[in-house]
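Quick one:
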Amino acid sequence: MPIIQKAVGTILTAVASVGMLGLFAVPARAQQVIKIDGSSTLFPVTEAVAEEFQKARKGAVRVTVGISGTGGGFKKFCRGETDISDASRPILTEEMQACRKQGIQYFELPVAYDALTVAVNPRNDWVGSLTLADLKKIWEPAAQGRITRWNQVRPEWPNQPLKLFGAGADSGTFDYFTEAIVGKAKASRGDFTASEDDHVLVQGIAADRYALGYIPFAYFEPNKSKLKGVAIDGGKGPAAPSLENVLKGTYNPLSRPLFIYVNAQSLGKREVREFVEFYLKHGAALATQVKYLPLPDEAHRMALERLEKKQLGTAFGGHPEVGLPVREILKRTPRL
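Output:
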């Protein structure tokens, strides 16, 4: 019995010691998390900003960046599941209503440019440029099952199958391209290879001599050896996709600003505000590093002013507009 009593006493003493240590121990500070989701087009820029911000904060903040497409990102954002939504088009009326229903208010901030790029296979030696009429003929809903060969677009082109690649229906790129080319968002033929993953589209175009597709400029630029960019004639002569042509306004209507939407309540958290300010101050340099088209410095200053003045809402009123200069967007008074 004395041996048993001694053993029990030792155990009780150990438990008590652990209990006292637990009582006075200082808990480690939880890592702060910023949740971002949305556009695959904007993902490389946001990911680059997130990496640099996390380094600057020495691991005190974790930034998660998802890719569910602009539409999928807005669904999460308007349910209050994310702090920031990446978008390759403005927020739409039904998404505004969803946010309003959940009491989600937001800031709309342009952060980069995209020159939406029509690309063909490098072995394509017949296409030098395309007109808007050519693109509409290829992509409008009436083309489905009817415009299936290159010579049906222009008779001098080869009598070979036309293999098409484009953005998935949840992508803001799909919305913007159809609005710009067909005249109505989401109005498109359906018999093409669609994906929200732009790498899939690059691989598809690169693998087939008779392929044509549209992808964000940032996915075209690092794959120039595999793809051939097509100059677009918007009515003033062919213009190649480039930052110079975007800024000159000659690459229309396929040049577009890219946005982050920031939950106003989340912005009240210090780490989110610091991240957004970091994005606006360093985004242009980081966009250039990942082969994106940076906004002019003036645009970033105007976006910071929008935060300081607490100008909530969107400058578009729920309806997309194509070919709109970013300065004009930021001069407008946004509304929820």
